[in-house]
Amino acid sequence: LKLERLTVPTLDKNNFIVQTVMDARARIFTEMDVEPLPAVFHKLYKDVKPELLSAIPLLAREKPIGLLLVDNINSQKKIEERDIRAISAFTNQAGMAIGNARLFELEKSFAEELEKQVEIAKKKLEQTQAQLINQERLAALGQMSAIVSHEIRNPMASIKACTQRIQKKIINDEQGTKYINYIITRFQGEK
To answer: CA torsion angle for 15, 5, 64, 25 (degrees, to 10)?
Structure first.
């Protein structure tokens, strides 16, 4: 029978497995355990005798992350405290390794997410920079058109003023008056 990825409800505080995890310390199964084992273990340990089964928590930074069940059902040799100490050395190393692996995965996922966020920010910055450059070009074009317009209006204002003076001077010249009036009407639309 293969036991892996089992879920044991933590509601039953008297349960041997739950107590081991909640207390975060190794336990040897004794006659004193009220509820010997969770139902998922009954097939494997249906006739277990006291002190042939032990549970050792896997700890990562002093918090339980798993559990190791050890039994001597085949040899019928009682599990003693020195056995627990020897196995605890292994479970301590295994717990640290699992904890470090989880931290590594967390750091890796954080780094990947950070990289994605940096790329998004970089794209937004590039877009904003492109918009700023475009706005600067439009502003420069607007300034240039204002300067060109001003440079064109100045001579035209002079021409208009001169034409109006000429109009007042030439009263009897019908052909000249016609041309002068044409020029003046063209300037009426310009301001």
So the answer is: 40
pLDDT in tens, 82-121: 999 999 999 999 999 999 999 999 999 999 999 999 999 9
What confidence score (pLDDT) does residue 43 get? 65
Quickly count: other Cβ atoms within 10 Å of residue 59's Cβ: 20
**Backbone φ and ψ of 30, nearest 5°:** -125, 175
63-71 and 27-28 strand pairing: unpaired
d(CA 44, CA 155): 107
Structure confidence at residue 42 as a pLDDT band (50, 70, 90): low
Residue 66 CB burial class (10 angstroms; 0-12, 13-18, ≥19): middle
